[in-house]
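Q: Got a minute? One more chain.
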Amino acid sequence: MPVKTLSNHPDKEEILRRLGEISPESQRHWGRMSAHQMVCHLSDSFRGVMGEKALSRAPGPVPRRIMKWGALYLPLRWPHGIKTRPEMDAQQEGTPPTDFAADMRELLRLLNRFTRQPQDFTWRPHPIFDHLSEWEWARWGYLHMDHHLRQFGA
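A: Always. Here it is, folded:
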C-alpha cells in the first residue's frame, strides 16, 4: 500500500473531498472537540509549523526521533486521546471558532500554502517530532488531517 502525503496530488484531493464532508453538525466519534473546533485546530497546527503562530514544545518520555519514526513511518493509525498543545486547542489558547464557512476557507488557504511549491515560509520545529524533512512534513500533514477527519466520520 503506498504511503500517503499531501505532496501527492491524489492524496491531497482525497483530503479535500473528505474535508468537504465536514459540517458544523458532524458528530465526533472520540475526543472533545466539535467539528468546528477541529477545523480551527487544523488551521492553528498549520499556522504553527509555518511560523504564523507560536508553538510550545511538548514534553515526552520517548525520544523525539523514535516518536517521529513511529508516527510517520509505521503503517498504524494514530491513537485517540493524545492531548494537543494549549495554543492549538480552541478550548484553551487556540483560535476560537467564529463563522464555519470563513474558518473552513482559512483552513483551505493554509493547506494550500502548506503544500505550495516553492514554499514561502521556513518550517518551525514540530512540538513533538522537532525537525522534519519535506517528505516528513507532507506525511505529517496528511496523517494529522486524516486523524481528525476520521474523528468526525469523514
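A: The radius of gyration is 15 Å.
Q: Perfect, thanks.
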